[in-house]
Amino acid sequence: MPSFALVKDAKLSLPVTSCAWCPSMDVVCYASADGSLEAHRLNWQKLWHAERASTSNARFSALAFRDDGKILAFVDDSPSWRAIDVANGEEITNASVDARARADDALERAARGDRTNESHGFVVTSCAWVTHDDVETRARRRAMTNGMTKAEMFARGATREREGTRRAESSSLAGEDEALHALVVCRGDGGVTMEFANGVVLARWRDVTKGEIECAYATSDLRRAFVVERVDGRASVLSCDLSHIATHAKDIRALSSHATRAREGMNGIESTIRDVGTTFERHWRAFATKMRTFEESLAMTSETMLLSVDEELRQRLAVACAVGTFDVALEHFFTTTFKIGQVRRCAKDLDVAFASAHESLTKTMSPMINAVMLRLGAILALARLGARARGIGLVEARVEEAIKACEQFAFCAMDAARLVTRRAAQLRAFFVVVIRALTVAEDGDAHGPSLPAPRLDLAQSFIDEVFGAREKDHLEVALGPKQRFAPSTSESLARCADHRMRALSVGESIDPLAVEVAFDALKTSVELALEMPCEVLSAECTWTRANPTHCQTSRSMFSNAERASSAELDTFHVDASGGSLHVYRTTTHASASTSVRVLTIDTPGEIIVDAAAYKNGRAALLLRPQDGNGDAKARLVLLDDGAIEGFHLGTVVDLQALPSRSRTLPCVAPHKPLAVSPNRGTAAVFVGATRVQLYDLEDDDDDDDEEDDEDDRM
Questions:
Q1: DSSP class of residue 640?
Q2: By CB atoms within 10 Å of each CB, which of 61, 188, 388, 520 scores lowest?
Q3: Integer distance in angstroms from the first to the last C-alpha of the chain?
């Protein structure tokens, strides 16, 4: 009678490169060879399908579900990791290697005289979630799920999914669900970072390992994290003491929440600034191009030799504004090149564009600025907690600088909105003068009811500001690209802050600051305020390295067994030949770690295709028969509880001698990966390149038959 009840046998459209089970629901997610992701229920009902966001052909190297099952993180051998919402498959994070790590690497290469761009060192190789719940939260969570069946737990999760709001999803991303969630991200250059789901870096360690990091693991109390590095085929376990982060988890969680909200507000502000700048550039450039055509025609005439082209145009327009008629040159330009229909269309487009820009700078951006200021104020309150603030590295002075930069940016945005309002009024007056003059030139009635009364003062100020001898237009400085007008940020902000109130009180004009420059100052100030916690937490958490394995191995994984001490952990290593599974136990004391081989499990006549850790320190093995082994089939084997306990160190034992359960598979050569869910008791086995079988590891087919027989007898 076969072990493990077969739940589903399904066909796939493409081969699978990576697979993982959701820890909170009976949902399996897999990555196909084309880079797409799919999620299915046990009955193979498709939940969602997500296409690859990038054009890279790199294969997915790791999928990692957060402990609550709400977020799936994945890496694809690129310099970034991404996260998607498990509920709908939408991407919520695309975090590349942070700029600080890239800058440090660039400085080191410059010091060595290396001018190459070694971006491959930033490739993300693996990732793993770590979670910290306080005692009250864990007790409440256990009480809510105590005695619930799988169906009841699934129904409860589905109800929450239906009743969830966007705010709840955002709170989950920010870590406001009373648990600290962070992702351990391992890079190809030996660097390790701990990041929140929104990409905020909690801690950063450089040059942790000498080789490629294969997998990562953290204890449930967040006291210690482990990674496995592989150098020349030999695996070593590295351990990091995270007790400082666990001690200050509550304050770190609050900081991450406020930082997430602040970043969301700044992302919205940045998007609004980009939209306003694009709209201004497109419509204002269309008008400026037309007027430049007239300047070029003036430059070709001899009468402009005594004056500059700009001054010549300004004087001609000023005269037209004063007398209400054009001279010969202007009349020719507006009747042949910039005709009245084009003038009306340009006037309407500019009016709509400036109205939209004003609304974006006021109604749209103001709530975002208020939200950022509110979150910075909350971070400042955390920074004033004394010893607790020092524990997480918050510096009150840096947070105050960020708040000051936010205030100055708000003033800068309002100055830009004021300039937009003034320019819109000036343009209306200018175009009224132009259209009236064109009407006169065509022998029409310039005083008809279709045109408003001319505001000659506004039209004259527009002519002086745009076509005068001023070095640059204030509005173009405020909304134009920052690379065109980018003075010293600190000096410009200080100048604006010191002279704004004095200039406004006496009616003087203010030299504006580019909105993008002010926003860059805000973003830099916020990053500096949040960088110090990263530096402090990184320094407080130290790494130790254990001795490597004694043999060549092809794959390693961490055991899920929680031991009495968080400094002790078992690891499983598949031998390079595929004929053995080595069990090592790593123990960390103070600043030293040691790894000893506890047990070696031989599989005579069979090759280990893949292995996975199961609950209570057990291991699941996917085996195929060796070549020429008759009519033997592949097998799925699950070791029983305590199967690897009680042996002397270094013992070698055959798999047949260990208590286990197994099932023969309908194939000879199964495919990687073997995906096992310790939480749900399920496994996904790929018995062919495009065929998968789902098994319930806690139930056997004979159990179902016996239950059916009992029902028949009743």
A1: P
A2: 388
A3: 24
The 10s digit of each residue's pLDDT in 663-705 is 999 999 999 999 999 888 999 999 999 999 999 998 887 654 4
Confidence of residue 577 (pLDDT cuts 50, 70, 90): confident
Which residue has 């390790």 as its token pair? 192
Which residue type occupies 665?
Answer: L
pLDDT value at 502 more than 60: no
Which of 24, 145, 74, 462 is closest to 83 using CA atoms? 74
Measured distance CA(609)–CA(712) in Å, rounded: 41
Could you give the 3-state DSSP secondary structure of residue 513? coil
What is the phi-psi region of residue 180: left when phi exceeds 0, alpha when psi lies from -120 to 50, beta otherwise?
beta
- What pLDDT is attached to residue 399? 94
172: tokens are: 């989950």
Question: Can you list the alpha helix ranges (DSSP code H) found in 442-514?
Answer: 456-467, 474-479, 489-505
Distances (CA, A) of 613 to 8, 23, 366, 463, 610: 22, 14, 51, 76, 11
Amino acid found at 182 = A
249-299 and 365-383 are packed helices; what angle lies between their axes, rounded to 10 degrees?
140
- Give the chain's radius of gyration (CA, Å): 34
User: Residues, the chain, total?
Assistant: 714
User: Residue 359: which pLDDT band, with cuts at 50, 70 and 90?
Assistant: very high
| Cβ-contact 78, 54 below 8 angstroms | yes
CA 707 to chain centre: 49
Residue type, 590: A
The half-sphere exposure of 162 on its side-chain side, counting CA atoms within 13 A, is 5
Give tens-digit pLDDT for 614-666: 988 899 999 999 876 678 899 999 999 888 888 888 899 999 999 999 999 99
638, 616 Cβ separation under 8 angstroms: no
According to the model, what pLDDT value does residue 341 have?
86
Question: Left (φ > 0), alpha (ψ -120 to 50) or beta: where does 355 sit?
Answer: alpha
Residues in CB range of 660: below 8 A, 6 or more apart: 637, 638, 639, 640, 643
Residues 219, 531: Cα–Cα separation, whole Å? 26
Please list, in sequence order, all residues whose beta carbon lies within 8 angstroms of the beta carbon of residue 451, skipping any fewer than 6 positions away.
Answer: 432, 435, 436, 439
Least confident of 210-224, 333-347, 404-418: 210-224
pLDDT value for 170: 43
pLDDT digits (tens, 9 = 90+) for 5-21: 999 999 999 999 899 99
Q: What is the DSSP letter of 548?
A: P
Report the pLDDT value the prediction gives residue 505, as an integer from 0 to 100.
44
Residues 6+ apart with CB under 8 A from 231: 210, 211, 548
- The structure tokens listed for 318 are 């000023």
The token duo for 107 is 């400085």
What pLDDT, on a 0 to 100 scale, did the predictor assign at position 403?
Answer: 94
- Which candidate, 57, 181, 203, 192, places its Cα nearest to that of 125? 192
User: Sign of dihedral through CA atoms 169, 174, 177, 179?
Assistant: positive
Residue at token pair 């737990």: 153
Mean pLDDT lowest among 162-166, 202-206, 332-336: 162-166
Residue reference for tokens 């004056």: 307
Is a pLDDT exceeding 80 seen at residue 109? Answer: no
Distance, CA of 72 to CA of 23 (rounded, Å)? 11
Report yes or no: 695 and 6 within 8 Å, Cβ to Cβ: yes
SS (H, E, C) 57-91: CCCCCEEEECCCCCEEEEECCCCEEEEEECCCCCE
* pLDDT of amino acid 46: 94
Model pLDDT, residue 167:
40
Q: Which of 175, 179, 203 is nearest to 259 (CA)?
A: 175
Structural tokens at position 315: 């004087």
Distance CA 485, CA 479 (A): 10
Residues 192 and 214: their CA atoms lie apart, in Å, by 12
